[in-house]
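Hey everyone, long-time lurker, first post.

I ran two proteins through the pipeline my lab uses and got sequence/structure pairs for each. Pasting them in order. The first:
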Amino acid sequence: MTEVTIKVNGREMKGSVEDRTLLVEFLRDNLGLTGTHVGCDTSQCGACVVHVDGKAVKSCTMLAVQASGSEVMTIEGLANGTELHPVQAAFREHHGLQCGFCTPGMIMTAVDMINRHGSSLTEHDVREQLDGNICRCTGYHNIVKAILAAAGASGPQQIAAE
């Protein structure tokens, strides 16, 4: 067992893990943060996307020991209390979710996209950069619409969690 210390959603968390424990398993099983989903076990679907040191990462492709010493943001850390993060609010307003299974990964990917591109994000960019996130319920139209709305509302500044 290896001791890991990871700052998760602004709080320092420690735990003992086997060296082969994936970050997604640590988040879900050790910390009870079940908003990060495991959808495919092959890193294809993007349901497990979190931010590690400010960048979108598929948490099923990273070991918990690799994240030790890093800052991790999960879907649970985006909202400011009862106030939704702007991307979460845009998904709600523009009906960018169906069953909701892929939504946390989509939102985390969208926040990363907007942080990198701001209001210059285009529909083509969004569709291209969502390539690693699979939604089996929809044709992505409302997801793209929600991301573009959030990007337009954000302007050039970052819309990271508070």
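...and the second, right after it:
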Amino acid sequence: MITKNAIQLKQNGLTFYLMKLTGQELLDYTKIEHFNSSKAIESNEPIGYQRPPYPAHYRKISKYLLGDNAILPPAIICAIDSNMIRFDNNEISIKDKVRVVDGQHRIEGIRHLPHFSEEKYSKVKEYEFGIILMSIGKEDKIYEVTTFIDLNKKGKKVSTDLAISLAEVLRKQDKNTTNQSYDDLVRSIATNISKSLESNPNTIWYKSISLGDEITRKKPVSINLFNRSLTSLIIEFLKYKGVTKKNYTLQDFNIIDYSKELMKLINEAWLYIIERWPKCFTSVSKPGYSEKYNIQKGIGVYSIHILLTQSFTESKGNIDQALAYFKDIIHQSKLTQIDWKTGGRFSVYNSKSGFEKIAKIIKNEIESSEDENEELLF
């Protein structure tokens, strides 16, 4: 047990504590809950959501700490089960190690510092670090995971794929449906579609969407990226079901049925893609991902799903009609298989505006220029 001075804060029904720990206390009283898809996803057990730390990243932090003026002022965000703490008179007593939500590489950088300098380590372990500690009840785990996702989805090269998968497990287990919002509905449908495609051997996406903990086999697209590419389509679909952000009610939380309907649209649309550009895949008899082409990477996924969304909107929500529109677009396209080559003409279109341009090129609405420069998105 460790006791510290703390300030209690409350936001949206959640309790937080502002406190400080020394570098040594960070090493002694924190832990990382790493994710393993074979345990967490298949067994539906919410185990963890973090990758193991990257040695190159924390070694860089260690080397930074060797400098005379090195400081690490940003707060480290942690979480602990609410039954493991007691707060009284601005003092918090913590009975267990706290889980690191954001800051594991900083902690590992401190831990690794003796490999470079024992003298510097002896100083840094006495540094004081700001801690934001989340008090997590049984029904609140989803907030811990989504905090990790929100902190890392923009501007940081940290995979949120693990957390996205775990968040869906937690949403399924959450019996308190008042926690479920319209945005949760959209995210849940996207995750269900992605995971269903990835696990179904009869789809082009079988074992080709990364859940985040893969070590050896490189997959063309992450669940985070695939989900994002489906967001506009799902919102349009829900609109034609009479469900919008403004009129959303808990009774509209019909994830399974909505996911199945959209699965038909997405799966059959990709069959037309295979038919139109077969050499972009491994074989005709059993097509799969080919590293030589961008069509199953973000460049292809985003632009193709933009067209699928447009076809669905044009059909006014009729899936069969949407597929007919989409098939016409694909088969009338002047685009060749060479255009999808990795490192080819589309490789510079790695941005949202670039994906929209590719969609227009597929529809024969504009011509592309190989020397156009696009801002990189990922």
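Reply from user beta_strand_b:
Welcome! Quick read of the second one: Confidence is low (pLDDT under 50) at residues 370-378. The first helix runs from residue 23 to 29.
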